[in-house]
């Protein structure tokens, strides 16, 4: 900034603010009610809330990151162990939901790339297209043709049949 300032254009505020003089000896009712409200309502509520926050800070609970322990696969369950069957089924359902979300996220990324790139989407979004193809193929290999009522047992049988077909194809190719 230049050194030659125009002091009339930018006036400096007064150094001391004047003190208002009271004309009556009666206290202001607004300050009285504010003080009463502060001590009767606000202070106890603030104390209770801070106490609750201190208690919650001691044991943090992140409800949105629930981690389940991995349970044995259905193929590892013993015969007649129905609790193991139930846990394996629940684990399979969680895995299926995670895989569905992975496919959905990759699909959304591809859609965002296509939206962003416009006419150049075919060359600039090739990586996302390839990734979506891989993810959907893996999902289809594992969960395809199971239908709405698919479960861990039918998925395991599908995997077994696919492995048997791959072995037959390898045996026929080597002959």
As an assembly, this protein is single chain
Order of helices and strands: HHHHH
- Radius of gyration, taken over Cα atoms and rounded to an integer in Å: 35 Å
| Mean pLDDT value | 87
Number of domains: 2
How many alpha or pi helices?
A: 5
Largest sheet: none
The count of β-strands is: 0
Helix content: 55-70%
Distance between the termini: 89 Å
Weakly predicted, low-confidence segments: none
Structure description:
This protein has 175 residues and is mostly helical. It folds into 2 domains: 37 residues; 92 residues, no CATH class. It is built from 5 helices and no strands. The relative contact order is 0.05. It comes from Thalassarche chlororhynchos. Belongs to the complex I NDUFB10 subunit family. It is a peripheral membrane protein. This is NADH dehydrogenase [ubiquinone] 1 beta subcomplex subunit 10. InterPro entries: NADH_UbQ_OxRdtase_su10, NDUFB10.
Structure summarized in a few sentences:
Helix content is 63%, strand content 0%. With 175 residues, the protein is mainly α.
């Amino acid at each position: 900034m230049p050194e030659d300032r125009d002091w009339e254009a930018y006036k400096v505020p007064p150094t001391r603010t004047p003190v208002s003089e009271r004309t009556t000896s009666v206290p202001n009712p607004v300050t009285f009610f504010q003080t009463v409200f502060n001590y009767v309502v606000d202070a106890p509520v603030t104390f209770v809330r801070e106490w609750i926050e201190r208690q919650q800070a001691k044991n943090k609970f992140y409800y949105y990151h629930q981690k389940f322990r991995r349970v044995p696969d259905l193929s590892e369950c013993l015969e007649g162990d129905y609790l193991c069957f139930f846990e394996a089924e629940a684990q399979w359902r969680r895995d299926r939901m995670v895989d569905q979300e992975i496919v959905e996220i990759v699909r959304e990324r591809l859609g965002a790339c296509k939206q962003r790139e416009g006419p150049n989407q075919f060359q600039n979004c090739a990586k996302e297209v390839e990734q979506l193809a891989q993810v959907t193929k893996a999902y289809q290999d594992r969960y395809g043709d199971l239908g709405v009522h698919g479960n861990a047992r039918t998925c395991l049988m599908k995997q077994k049949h696919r492995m048997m077909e791959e072995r037959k194809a390898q045996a026929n190719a080597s002959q």
